[in-house]
Structures are given as C-alpha cells and as structure tokens.
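Hi W.,

Here's what went into the run:
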Amino acid sequence: MATIYVLNGPNLNLLGTREPEIYGHATLADVERLCRATAARFDLAVEFRQSNHEGELIDSIHEAARNGAAGIVFNPAGYTHTSIAMHDAIAAGRIPVIEVHISNVFARESFRAHSYVAPVARASLCGFGIDGYALAITGLAAMIGIAAKS
Ligand code: DQA
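Here's what came out:
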C-alpha cells in the first residue's frame, strides 16, 4: 500500500479554537479523520503530523522522500510566507507536494499572498476550509495515477 504524508505547520494544533471565524470550528483531529477517510478510498496509508517547529517539518519532508512516499499534502501555515528552507526541502525531495490552506490566503493580509512553497508544489489550493485536505488527497491520487476503489 502506498503512503502519503499529511503535514501541518505551526498553530494548526489549535484548530477549533484558533480564530474560528477564519479557520472554522473543526479540530486537527477532525482534519486527520477526514484525511484518513479520503485516503482509504484510494487505498493510501496516511502518515499524519503537525509541528510548530520548522526543522521538524523539514525532517518529515526528508523522511517522506527517503521512504518513497507517494506524495505530501502540506499546510505549511505561517512558514508558507517565510521559509526558504521549506522551499529547498521540497525541491530536494522530488516527490509531489500539494500545498493546502484552509483560508483563502489571497483575500487576507497582503503578506499571505506570497508563498515560498508554491513554486515547488505540484499544485496549491486554498479557501475550501478543511475540505481542501480531501480535495488535495483526491487530486494527488489522480496525479499519481491511483483510482478510487470501486
Ligand atoms: C493557513 C494560512 C496561513 O497564512 C496561516 O499562517 C496559517 C494557516 C491556512 O490554512 O489558511 O497558519 O495556512
């Protein structure tokens, strides 16, 4: 069974209570359940992680590439807008990365409109709430040629 990594950056452990008018009321545990249910439709195993630390996220990207993961669904959160190191780790990894944001980053402060991750991601999506994770997994499966189970 192929494995995908779902990586979540800083402050996403606070989902559910963090600025619910922007991020909604679902928790990170809800996101994990959604990701596992969606991945199961494609027979994909999920390695689901959240970290508030840039280096830990980079280590997870390296690990996913080293382990031959089928891809990464990645919400880099605040590091999206600051981290050249994250960009470099994805570029080095050579596995497909789908960038996801819960909120519509383009409809918010101007500093959120720039992503260091987008140029090395195979696709990016934002503004769908936590459903964006399910859409990203579905898109990743299509990209790597894995059909849904009948
Ligand atoms: C976010 C958007 C980022 O700008 C922000 O720093 C986050 C969450 C999102 O999912 O909408 O922490 O990635």
